[in-house]
Records
---
Amino acid sequence: MNNKKTFGKNTLEVITILVCLIILGICMGIGSVDIPFADAMTILSGKIFGTNIPEDLAATTSILWTIRLPRAVTAFVVGGALALSGTIMQSVLQNPLASSYTLGVSSGASLGASIIIVTQFTVPLLGSFLLPTFGFAFGFATVLIVLAIASKFDSTLHSNTVILIGMVVSLFTNAVMTLVSSFARAHSQQLLLWQMGSFSAKRWYHVQILLPICIFGLIVTLYYARSMDIMSFGDEQAYAMGVNVRKRKKALLLLASLLTGVSVCFSGTIGFVDLIAPHAVRIVFGSSHKRVVPMSFFVGGAFMALCDMIARTAVESELPVGAVTGVIGAPFFVWLYLRGRKEA
Amino acid sequence: MNAISVSNLSAGYGADPVIKDINFNLECGRKLSIMGANGSGKTTLLRSLNGLIKYKGDIKILGHDLSSLKRREIAGMMAMMSQLSPVYFSYSIRETVELGRFARHENERAAGSLLKTSHESLVHDREMVDKCLELTGLKDIEKKQISSLSGGQLQRVFLARCFAQETPIILLDEPTNHLDLKYQAELMEHLENWSKGQTQLPDGTKVPNTLVGVFHDISLAVEISSDMIFIKNGEVLCQGEKDKVFTASVLENAYGMDVAGYMNRQRRIWGKMREY
C-alpha cells in the first residue's frame, strides 16, 4: 500500500488540483439561474481572450462575470488562504489542533469591526474598505501583542507559551468586544452578520486584493517547506538541525496571520477549513510540506467554494457560510480523526 | 585540532547558573562522556555546547566562536541526538533522515549563493541518506511511517538523521533511554564505528569524528568513552582521560553512593546465573 502511494503521488497531486478547479467551475455554474456549460465557456473565453460574445448572452454574462465568478473565486482564495495559514500554524506550533485563529486574529478583527460599527466612525477615503481595513489592523495588532508578550515571558518562543498567550489574549479581546457591543445593542445585528461571514457582493476588486496576497503567501510558504518539516519535530531538534527557529517561527506566524487577517476582514470568521484541509491532505499525501502546502491551498479553496455554493443555493434565503463549513466540517473532522486513530 | 574548547563557561535557565566555571579542551577524534548525578547539570552543559541556551564564557567549535556562528553553520559542524520526544506529524523514515541534510544544503547555498543546489550535491544527498539508512539497519523499512515505530526504532531513525547531517561532532543526550538491551548494544556499536571514522568538511579538510555524550548508564559511558568529565552541583569534580579519572572514589563523590560496591554486588548476582 505504501509503495502504491509513493508511486502515484505526483499523479494524484495533479488529479487533486484538477478536481479542485472543476469544483470551482461547477460552483460558478450552479445558482438561481443555471448557466449551461457551453454558454459559460463562451462567456469566459470572450472575457479572457476577447472572442465575440453573442448578444443574447448579455444577461447571463453579467450574472456570471460580475456576480458569480468573483464570488466563487473569492471563496476559493479565502478557503485556500485559511487552509494555508492553518498548515503553517500546525507545523510551527507542533500542534495538529492549532488553527489560523490560535493567535487571536479573528477576535482582534472582530473587536476592530465592532468598534467601527458601534462608533460609526468613518474615513471617507476608505469607503467600503473601512471595515476590512480596521478589522485587519486590529487582527494583526492582536497577533503582534501575543508575540510580544510571549517572547517577553519566554525568549525561546516555545509553542506552549505562544498557544497559551494566544488563548488568553483572544479571550480578553472577545470579552472587550462583548462589552463594546453591549453598549450599543442597536448595532449587534450588523456585528453578528459581519462575524458569521459571507461571500455575497464580492466583486473583482476584492479578488484583486486577495489573490496577490495569497499567491505571495503560497510562494513564501513553499520556500520554507523544508524548515516547516524540520520545525514540526520540535524546537530543540530544529535548532540542532540548523533552523533558526525563533526567527523562522516569527516570520511564519506573521505570514499565517496576514493570510488569516485578510481572509477574515473580507469574509468574516469562517472556521474549520483551516483545520480540516491540512489534516485531510496529510492523510492522503503524507506530512512533507512540499506537498501539504500547495494541496492544502487547493483543497481548502475547493471546500470553501463548495460550502459557499451550498450556502447560497440550499434554501431560498442565503445561509451564513461559516455555519455551513461547521455543519459539514465538524462531523467530517471527527470521522477523519477516528479513522486516523484506528489505523495508528 | 580541538573539536570543542570551553573556557569559563557558566550557563543556566534563570538568574542562577546551573553550571559554573567549566573549562576543557577536547581534541578531534576523542569520545567524551559527561557524568554526574541527576540534576548535576549534565544536560545543561550539553545544551550549551550546542548553543541551545544562553551562556557566559567561551565555547569554540573546531576553532570557531560558537556565539558568532549561525544556526546552519553550527548544524554543519555538530549534530545532536536529543532524548526521545513525541512525534506529532508522521513522515516516512526516509523523509525524516533526509531532513538531516538541511544544514549542508543551506551552507552550500550560502557559500555558492546558488538559487538551487547542484545536481552533484543532490546525488551525494541520496547516497549519504542510503548509507545512513543501511548503517542503522533501516534501509528495508525506509518507507514506513515514523508514527508507527517503537521507541527503539525511532531512536535509530534519529541516529540515522544525525549521521546524515554529516558533521564531525555528534552530541548525544541519553541516547539509550527507553531502549531494550539489544538496541542499546546495537546503538553503541553504530556510535563506536562512526567515531573511528573521519568527516570531510565543506572546505575539504578531513576531521576525525568526535563524540560527546550524556549517559544515564555508567557502564555504557565507560565502555564508549576515551575521556570523562564528572560534574557535581554544576561544577567540575574531576576530568581527564578515562583511565585516570574512572576511580571508585570519584564515582562515590559524583553520585553520592558507593557505586563500585554496588556494581560489584551486581556482578556477583550475574556470576551466580546458570548458563542454561
---
Amino acid sequence: MRIHCPHCGPRGHDEFVHHGDAVPQRPQTDATDAAFHDYVYLRDNPAGLYRELWFHAAGCHSWLIVERDTRTHEIRSVTFARGDA
Amino acid sequence: MRYSAFRLFTEALRGNRGWQPAWRDAAPRPAYEAVIVGGGGHGLATAYYLAKVHGLRDIAVLEKGWIGGGNIGRNTTIIRSNYLLPGNTPFYEWSLKLWEGLEQEINYNAMVSQRGVLNLHHNDAQRDANVRRGNAMRLQGVDAELLDAQDVRRMLPFLDFDNARFPIRGGLLQPRGGTVRHDAVAWGYARAADRLGVDIIQNCEVTGFRIQGGAVTGVETTRGPIAARKVGLACAGHSSRVAALAGLKLPIESHVLQAFVTEGLKPLIPGVITFGAGHFYISQSDKGGLVFGGDIDGYNSYAQRGNLATVEDVCEGGMALMPMIGRARLLRSWGGVMDMSMDGSPIIDHTPVEGLYLNAGWCYGGFKATPGSGWCFAHLLARDEPHPVAAAYRLDRFAAGRVIDEKGQGPHPNRH
Amino acid sequence: MSARLPSGGLIDRTRRLRFSFDGRRHEGFAGDTLAAALLADGVRLVGRSFKYHRPRGVLTAGPEEPNALVELRSGARREPNTRATVVELYDGLEAQSQNRWPSLRFDLLALNGLFSPLLGAGFYYKTFMWPAAFWEKVYEPLIRRAAGLGSLSTAPDPDHYEKATAFCDLLVVGSGPAGLMAALVAARSGARVILAEQDCLFGGRCLSERIVLGDGSAHRWVQSVVAELAATPGVRLLPRTTVVGTYDHGAYTAVERVNDHVAAPPPFEPRQRLWRIVAKRAVLAAGALERPLVFGDNDLPGVMLASAVSTYINRYAVRPGERAVLYADNDHAWATVADLRAAGAEIVAIVDPRPDARARAAVVARDAPLLTGVVRRALGGRTLQGVEVVGADGHVHRLDCDLLAMSGGWAPTLHLTSHLGAKPRWDAERSMFLPEQLPPGLLVAGAAGGELTTAAALSTGIRIAEGSLQSLGIAPRGVTPPVAGEEADAWTPLWRAPSSRGKRFIDFQNDVTTDDLELAHREGFGASEHAKRYTTLGMATDQGKTSALNGLATLAALTGKSIGEVGTTTYRPPYTPVAIGALAGHHRGPDFRPTRLTPSHEWAREQGAVFIESGAWLRAQYFPRAGETDWLPPVIREVQAVRSAVGLCDVSTLGKIELKGPDALRFIERLYANGWQTLAVGRARYGVMLREDGRVMDDGTVARLGEQHWFMTTTTANAVAVYQHMQHCHQVLWPELDVQFTSVTEQWAQFAVAGPRSRELLRRILASGEDISNDAFPYMAARAVTLADGLRGRLFRLSFSGELAYEIAVPARHGDAIIRRLAAAGEDLGVVPYGLEALGVMRIEKGHVAGNELTGRTSAQQLGLGRMLSTQKDYIGARLARLPALDDPADTQLVGVRPVDGKTRLVSGAHFLPLAAPTTFEHEQGYMTSVAYSPSLGHWIALGLLKNGRQRHGERLRAVDLLRSQETEVEICDPVFIDPQGARLRG
C-alpha cells in the first residue's frame, strides 16, 4: 500500500505502524466501566470503509486518520489525527 | 464406504469406478435442531462431535462457498500444545490428543505427523520464558524438553550458529507437535459427519438471523430461511460480520496472515522450527515443499492477500535462521483472513442472544485447535455449559479483566 | 547426432560453450538455453515426473516448463528444480537430472507407474492408517523420500542478493510487439518508463517466430526500437527481469537475474536483484501461453508445444525432430510446419480436429497427409516413436514420427491482473480467460489481452500507452506501428480428450491425469478449488501454467458445465518461483537486523567486555579479567566493587524523552499512574505507566529540569513503543495540551556511576563549582552540570543498584571521552566497569522489577506497585486498573525467594509447589521470574510471582524445574534483599 502522508507525501505502508480503529473515543473520567470496556475492547471491524489510525514511525511521527476500504485497500483520505491540516 | 488398503486394491481392480462421494452435497431442509454457520475445519468438527459424542443427528453445516475453502486450507498446518498460560494449555493439549486418534476415528488419513515443534531462544529472558512455559506444560502432562545450543546444533546442523545476529542459545521442543495435511482435515470431518447424517450445505451464505424475544429461531440464507433451535457461529475471519447480523459487536478485528510454500525438495527439515529472533517458522510437507510463515500483515483487511513488506520480513527471518534456503524458490503465497482477538486467545461461549453460540477469535492459531474447538463447541451447544478445558474462553473475560494474553501485548490485535 | 542447423538462429556460433549434463560433456553456443543445447546434442530425455517417474523431455521453450527440471550448478550453489528452458548456457555449466534412482535412464521408481490404479488422486487419504504408530515410523519416511523433486544444498547460499526501489510513470511488462510499442510511445512522450523483460533479449515472439514487420524481419525492428529506447533519457531497460507480483496502489515486484547467466557472480555483484517498482501506470504485455493438448501418453519426450518447436528452430537453430506431426486446433500453429520444413524436417502429417480447416490447411500441408481427427495416443518407450490418430471416420492411423508439435491455442498471461484478488472472466466466444476487473492503473495490451495477431499487438500497445499517459496528464507523442503481415488465427478449441489406453496428462509435473479428475469428480471434489487440492492439479512448480485450462475444461466436461461456470483458480504471487534469497536481500547473518552500539562500546571492547544482544543493542554483559574463564566470577567481582567502591555502567540504551511546554505536567500526569504535582524542579521520581487495559506498560524515571522542562526515561525494551504511545496520547487523545516532546535516546550518552565512592569520583570530573554534597544534591536530585573541561551535561542521583549512585549524561559524541575520563579518574578508587549481568544481580537484590516481571501481563498491584496508582486523577489505564481481577489475591504477587539450604542454585522458570502436594498443575502456586547469585548475601536469590505471595513471606515451598529435573526447597521472603530502608542510596 501507499499512504499519502499529508506532511511527507506518498510513502510505502511499511514506513507506518497501524494502530486500529479511529472511531472509538476515549470516555470521560466519569464514564462507566462498561463504556471503558467498549472503548478498549469492542470493534466494528467493518468489511468496507474503515477509519483507522496509523503512525508515521519512519517519517514525520504524525498520527494519521486513514479512510480505507478493508476489502480492496483503496484509500479515500488521509488526515492528521490532531485535526489541523 | 470404509477406506482401507484393501478397499483401494479392490477398487483399483474395478477401474476405480466404485468410489462414492466423500459427502453428500445436501440441499437445505426447512428446519434443523442445530445449524452451524461455517463449513471450515471448526464448523465441520463441531457438527461431527455433536453427532458423534452428543447424539444429535438433525444438524446442518452452512457454508458460503465450498467447504474447506477458508483458513483450514490456508495455513501452515502446524499442531502443538506448547502454550504458557493455564487458560490455554489444557485446551490445546486436549486438541492434540484428539489429533492423535483422529485418523482412525474418522477413517481418513490426514497425515497427522508428530515430528516435533521446536521454539528457539536467543537470549536469557527468552530462555527463562521457555523454561517457565516448558515447566507449565510438563506440570499439565504435556511433553516438553529443553535443548541447549549444542542439542539444537546436533538436531539441525544447517541453522546459522556461527554467523548470526542473534545466536541460537537453545530451544523448547515439544516432540508430539508436528503437522497435518490441512485440507484433509476438512474433508475427513465432512465425510465422517455426513456418515452420521449431518447435512453439509455448500454455496449457502447466511444473510441474517431470526431472533424472537431475545432467542434465535433460525437463519436467513441465500438458499432461503432455515429454522433452528440452536445456531453456532464458526466462521473465524468473518466472525464480526456474521455476528453483526445478530446485532453483536465483538472484541475482534480481521487481519491477514500470509503463508508460503517453496518448490518441492528432497527431505531437509525434520520437524517444525520457530525462530525466536524474527517472525519465521517453517516445516516441510510430505510432498517436499517448505511451508513457512511469519507475522500478520499488521492492518485490518478482508482482502485475503498479503503485502510485500511482510513477505520480505518473513524471508529475512528465514535467511537469518537457515541460510541454505537462499536458493530454494518461493512457489506460492496466500493470505487468510484471521479473527484477531483483543488478547490473542479464542472465544467459545454463549452470546447475549439465547440459542446463539460463538466460536471465534482464533487469531492465527486456529488450525491446531480444530478438533478441540469442535469438541468443546459441540459440548457447549449440546449441554449449554462450557467444556472444562475451554472454560476460560469466555466472551466476558475482557470486561472482567481476566484476559488470556500469551504475548503480553494488551488490547492490540495486530500485536498478538 | 547433432540437431543443430547449419545456419540461422540468434546464437553466437563463434562462442562455443562446454557444459555437462549428468556428468556427460556437451557443447553449445552462446545464446543457447540449456534445453536448446541439450536438444541440439540429441538429448531428449531430461527428467522424471513427480509421482510415476515417467520419462520426460522438453515441452516448452519458456518459464512455463513443467518437465525439463534439473539441478543446476553444484556444491552450495546447487539449484534444484531449475527449468532448463530458461537457463542461459555458460561455459562450464553443470546440470544433473533429479528425482530419479539410480539414473535418469533406469529409474526404479518408474515402477510406481505399474501401480498407478492404486495411486490415483488422493489415494493416501484412504490408507496408511494402520497401525497408527506406523505413520511417522514407516509410511511417512518412505513417502517423504520418494516425494520432493531436486535436493537443496544444506550449505549457506554463498551469493548475495540486493534490493532496489524504482519509480516510474509507466511500467511495461513484456517486450513483444505490444510492450515495445507501449514503451516507445511513453519514451517519446518524455515519461519515465521501465521496460521489464523476463528473457535476456527483448522482442518476445519476434525472437521465436518468423515475422515480417514493415520491410524487414521483426528481429531487426526490435533492435531499432530497443536502440531508441536505450538512448532515451528516463527509460530504464530491465532484461532478465520478471515482474512477479502486483501489490496495492501501483506497487510491483520484479526479480532481475543479474548473474544467473554466469557460473558465479563476479566479486561484489549480486546474484539477483529484487525490484520494488512503484508505477503510476502499468501495461501488461506479457503475451500468452500455448495450451498443450490432452491425449494418451502425451508426456512422452518428443511431444512439444508447437510454439516451442518454432522457437528452437528460429531462435536456437535446433531441429527438435526429423519426422514431425503437427497436431493443432488452430491455424496459427501452421507456421510451425513452415519452420519445420525450412529446418529440413519431414512433415509426416498434419492432424487437425476441425473439419472446416481442411481446405485452408491443404495449402500448408502441401504433399503431407492431412488428417481430420484427433491424436489418441503417443507411442514410444522413453521417447516418441509414433502416434495413433483417430480420423473423423473412426479409422485409426498409426504414424511414425519422432516429434509431435501440438497446439491447443493460446491462454493470455494475465496473472498480474489477478494478484489483487480479481478473478478473470471466461470469454466463451474467444475461448479464453480475460481480465474483468483490473488493478487500478494497470491495463493489458497484446496477446495478454487476447489480441493474438502481431498487428493487433502493435496497435493495442500504442493505444493503451497513449491512454495511460493521457490519464497522467502527459501528452502522448505519436508512434506509427510497422505494417505487419496477415496472420492465420482461426481457432476452434478442442477441449475433449479422446479415450485412450495411455495416461492422459493434464498436469505433467504432478502426474495428474484425466482419470484423476474423473475420480475427484466421482468422489465429490468436482468444484475447481476442491479438485485442485484433491488431485494437486496446478500445484507443481509451473504453477498450473500448462495445466490449469485443461483441468478446468476436463472438469467442465465432467460436470456438464461451461468452463466459465467451473470457474478459475486464483492466481497468487509470484508469477514464477522466486529465490528466497532475493526476497531477503542483505538481511542475513550479522546483517539480519541493524546493530545499535552504545557510546562506550569501543572502550568496553578494549576492556575485554563480553557483549550480549539486548533488543537491537549490543551491550557489555560482563568484563572478564585474566583468569576469569566463566561468567560468574567477573559478575561477582563487579557487584562487589560497586557495593564496596564504585562502578561504571553504560545505561544509554534507556529510552530518553525530553518534554517541554506549559502542559507538560498535565501530560505526564495523564501518562503515568502515579502523581507528579509535588515534584519540584531539580528532582526526579520513579514512575509507572499503564496500558489502557490497566496492566503495566513500562516504568522509568522522570526528572523535572525546569518549571516546564521534563526529562523521562523508559526501559530499553520499550523505548520505541512508549514514545509512539506518547505521540498517540498527544496527537489523538489530547491535542489540546500544549506540550512538545522528542526522543533523545541517541543524543545523550548516559553512565551509571554507582557505589559508595561514586561521589568522590564524580567530583573529580565535574567543574570545581559543582556542589554534589548530599545536602546540595540529595537522592533523586537532577540538574544540569558543567564538567571540568566546560562540557555541559546532566546529573541525576538515581540508583538501580541500591548504592549511593548517579547517572551522568553528556552529549553522545562525548560519551567515549567521558567514560575514559571516569575510568582514569577513578583508578585509585577501585573503579570497575560493570555489565548487564551485574546490573541485573543488583536490581534483583533490590527487588526492582524488569523485563522478566514486566511481561505485559502483570498489573501494578501484582508487582507491589499498587500504592502508586493515583486515585486523584485520570490517566491511561486508570479505570480498568481498578478491576478486581487485577488485584486478586488468588493471582500471583511479587515475592523474594531464597534456597532453604542457603546453597542451591535457583533457576528461573521453575514453578512453585507446596512441599507436600503432588507435582501437578492443580497445585501450582507461581514461578520464579529472575534469579541471581547474590555476592552480598553469599547465596542464590530470586524474584518470583506467587499466588497471594505478599501474605506468604516465610513460607517454604518447592521450586520445581521438571525440564532439568531439579527441585529446590525455597523460602518466600520480601523481594528487597538488601538495605530495605534505603540507607545506602541516601548516604
